[in-house]
Queue: 2 jobs
Job 1
Amino acid sequence: MNPEIRKIVTYDEEILIEGFRKTEKPWRTFAVAAVITNPWAGKFVDNLKPEIQAYGPILGEMLTDRMLSLAGSGDAIEAYGKAAIVGLNGEIEHASALIHTLRFGNFYREAVGAKSYLAFTNTRAGANAPIMVPLMDKNDAGRRSHYLTIQFSISDAPRDDEIVIVLGGAMSGRPHHRIGDRYQDLKDLGHDLDNPASV
């Protein structure tokens, strides 16, 4: 059982001026999206597991390989995330199903040597809807310089019976970041850094 892939879309952006100031080096974010036929479109299916187990590894490996090709290596990717948009003839659960499985995400996580979880969005929309891929530092969930969002769209996807599956990445954080990180906030609020819930 293989996913029916209609097309693959690559997004790649290099920002040279941010906030009216030149960047020291290009600020690069990029993503790869697979537009696939939704195997559950137009009906309620109790057991999604067969397609999850079959599609997850194929999509995870393929999209990860393309991300590594864009970046040059897994080490070059500092921030990462994932997203899915299901077309109007599907459920949010269908978008979630194909990205919230270790059979999908672990390919990317292991390839970039990450410790953090993959930030995500899963939504339902029609063709040309904004695709929002949230990113975070692959090793430090509290590093705010790497809280980023990639936004792009695909003019003809998702069709009503499709799902768009996306991986995103960045080779650095925001070029002029100056809001600190959550650890300083915790310290300022009198919280124990080893136990943030404590006062």
Job 2
Amino acid sequence: MKNREQRDLFPGALEMMILRTLKQQALHGYALAKHIKRTSNDLLQIEEGSLYPALQRLLKEELVKAEWNISSTKRLEHEVSRFEGILEGITRVLAPGES
């Protein structure tokens, strides 16, 4: 259950904030939520369960466009995983007493 402190936004408020933010700069969902929180002096905290459906509605109405690509975080995870695999291979080859 929600606290009295946490109140639902009036209908359309989230969509207006998203459009206003995206008018200034292109952002992904997480960055949108952080921007809204920061800009509101932490008065508003947009949860994923509200943000992503709102973004889907805006996409459906063709008010925003989406671009799908691998985020830098995913790329970093991939590169770290690859590096760890190479490091493990090198460590096995160099391990003393093994041939």
